[in-house]
C-alpha cells in the first residue's frame, strides 16, 4: 500500500508488477479517471472524428518542479494543448509518460498529477493513456514528463509559418518573457522585490476565438523556447518574408524587464508558456485582438509588428531610439531546463 505522505518511489514501482499497479491505482487512476483510461488497456481506443487530425508531442524537464504560477504538471498539459491548438485544431486527448527518479516523494508526484488533472479539465481534454518508468537515483531531476496530444482541425485553412503574407500584422497575446524569468528567479532564489509568475496556461479557447473572429488567420505559434525573437525568425524563414517589429509596442512586465536587465537577458529570447503569436491580415487584426482580450490570458494583447516584402527571411525591429536593428536567432542557451 502506497503511503502518499511518507512514501517514496522505488525501483520496484517501474517493474510492471504489484508495486506498479498500486502506483497506478493510488495516484494516476485517482487523478486522471475517464472512460478511456478506466478501461485499463495498454493503449486507448478512441472514437472517430470527422475532420483532419492534428498531433503533437513534447517532453518536460523543468527545474524546479514547482514554481510561481505553475509546476511541471500544468506545464506538461498546457504545452501540448497549445501545440495542438496552434495547428488550427481543437485538442481532445492526451497521452502522458512519466520518468520517475528513485526516491521521489509520492506526495510530489501526487501534487503534480493533481495539477495535470486540473489543467486538463480547464482545457477540456482527457488524459487517456500513459506509461511509467523509474530510473536510478541521481539520473533525473526527480521527475520528467513526456506528453502527446491529438486534436481535430477546426478550420479548413492551412495554419503554418509558411503562410505569413506581406501586409499581415503580428499580434502577441500578452507580455513576453514571464515563464523563463519566473523559473530562473525561483531557481536562483532572486525575488527582485516581487514575485514573477509563470504564464503557463492552456490557450485552446483563445485559439478557437481567434479563428472565429479572424478566419483568414495565417499563422499561430506559441513562442516557447527561444522566445518571441527566435519564433519570428522561424516564421520569416519558413514564409520567405521579412518581419518588422516595433520595440515600443512589445508588452513586457516592468518586473520582468528589470530582472532581465539584472541577469543580462533579453526578454525577446526568454520562453513563454501561455502566450501566442497570431499573424493575420490587417483587415481582421482588430477582430482578432478583441477576441483575444475576452480571455483572462489575453488582456495584454497587442499588435507588435507586421510582415513585409523587404529583407526576406530576417526579423528587424524599430528601436525606442527610432533606429532599426536586426533581431537574430537565439544563439547558445540563455536558460536551461525551463520547459
Instruction: Indicate the radius of gyration in whole angstroms.
Output: 21 Å
Distance between the termini: 33 Å
The CATH topology of the largest domain turns out to be Phosphoribosyl-aminoimidazole Synthetase, Chain A, domain 2
Number of domains: 2
CATH classification class of the largest domain? Alpha Beta
Strand content: 15-25%
Mean pLDDT: 95
Describe the protein.
The chain is of the alpha+beta class. It folds into two domains: 11-153, 2-Layer Sandwich (60s Ribosomal Protein L30, Chain: A); 161-326, PurM-like C-terminal domain (Phosphoribosyl-aminoimidazole Synthetase, Chain A, domain 2, Alpha-Beta Complex), CATH 3.90.650. Helix content is 29%, strand content 22%. The protein has helices at 18-32, 72-85, 106-123, 178-188, 204-213, 227-239, 254-263, 285-293, and strands spanning 53-60, 66-67, 70-71, 89-101, 126-135, 143-153, 169-172, 219-221, 242-246, 277-280, 302-308, 315-318, 324-326. Strands 8-10-7-11-9-12-13 form a seven-stranded mixed beta sheet. The protein has a four-stranded mixed beta sheet with strand order 1-6-4-5. It has a two-stranded antiparallel sheet with strand order 2-3. Helix 1 packs parallel to helix 3, helix 2 (72-85) runs parallel beside helix 3 (106-123) and helix 5 packs antiparallel against helix 8 (285-293). The longest helix has 18 residues, at 106-123. Residues 42-151 form the PurM-like N-terminal domain. This is Hydrogenase expression/formation protein HypE. InterPro entries: HypE, PurM-like_C_dom, PurM-like_C_sf, PurM-like_N, PurM-like_N_sf. Belongs to the HypE family. Residues 165-315 form the PurM-like C-terminal domain.
Amino acid at each position: 500500500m502506497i503511503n502518499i505522505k511518507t512514501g517514496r518511489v522505488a525501483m520496484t514501482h517501474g517493474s510492471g508488477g504489484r508495486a506498479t499497479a498500486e502506483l497506478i491505482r493510488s495516484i494516476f487512476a485517482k487523478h486522471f479517471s475517464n472512460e478511456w483510461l478506466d478501461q485499463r488497456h495498454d493503449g486507448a481506443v478512441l472514437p472517430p472524428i470527422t475532420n483532419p487530425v492534428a498531433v503533437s508531442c513534447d517532453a518536460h524537464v523543468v527545474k524546479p518542479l514547482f514554481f510561481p504560477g505553475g509546476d511541471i504538471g500544468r506545464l506538461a498539459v498546457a504545452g501540448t494543448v497549445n501545440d495542438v491548438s496552434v495547428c488550427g485544431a481543437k485538442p481532445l486527448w492526451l497521452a502522458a509518460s512519466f520518468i520517475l527518479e528513485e526516491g521521489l516523494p509520492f506526495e510530489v508526484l501526487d501534487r503534480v498529477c493533481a495539477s495535470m488533472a486540473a489543467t486538463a479539465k480547464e482545457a477540456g481534454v482527457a488524459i487517456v493513456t500513459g506509461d511509467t518508468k523509474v530510473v536510478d537515483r541521481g539520473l533525473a531531476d526527480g521527475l520528467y514528463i513526456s506528453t502527446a496530444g491529438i486534436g481535430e482541425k477546426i478550420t479548413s485553412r492551412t495554419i503554418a509559418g509558411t503562410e505569413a503574407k506581406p501586409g499581415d500584422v503580428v499580434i502577441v497575446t500578452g507580455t513576453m518573457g514571464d515563464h523563463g524569468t519566473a523559473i530562473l528567479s525561483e531557481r536562483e532564489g532572486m525575488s527582485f522585490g516581487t514575485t514573477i509568475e509563470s504564464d503557463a496556461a492552456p490557450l485552446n479557447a483563445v485559439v478557437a476565438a481567434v479563428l472565429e473572429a479572424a478566419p483568414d488567420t495565417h499563422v499561430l505559434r506559441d513562442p516557447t523556447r527561444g522566445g518571441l525573437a527566435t519564433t519570428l525568425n522561424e516564421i520569416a524563414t519558413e514564409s520567405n518574408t521579412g518581419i518588422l517589429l516595433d520595440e515600443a509596442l512589445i508588452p513586457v512586465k516592468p518586473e520582468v524587464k528589470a530582472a532581465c536587465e539584472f541577469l543580462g537577458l533579453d526578454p525577446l529570447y526568454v520562453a513563454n508558456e501561455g502566450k501566442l503569436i497570431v499573424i493575420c491580415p490587417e483587415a481582421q487584426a482588430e477582430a482578432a485582438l478583441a477576441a483575444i482580450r475576452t480571455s483572462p490570458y489575453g488582456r495584454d494583447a497587442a499588435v507588435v509588428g507586421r510582415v513585409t516584402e523587404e529583407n526576406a527571411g530576417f526579423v528587424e525591429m524599430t528601436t525606442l531610439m527610432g533606429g532599426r536593428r536586426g533581431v537574430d536567432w537565439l544563439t547558445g542557451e540563455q536558460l536551461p531546463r525551463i520547459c
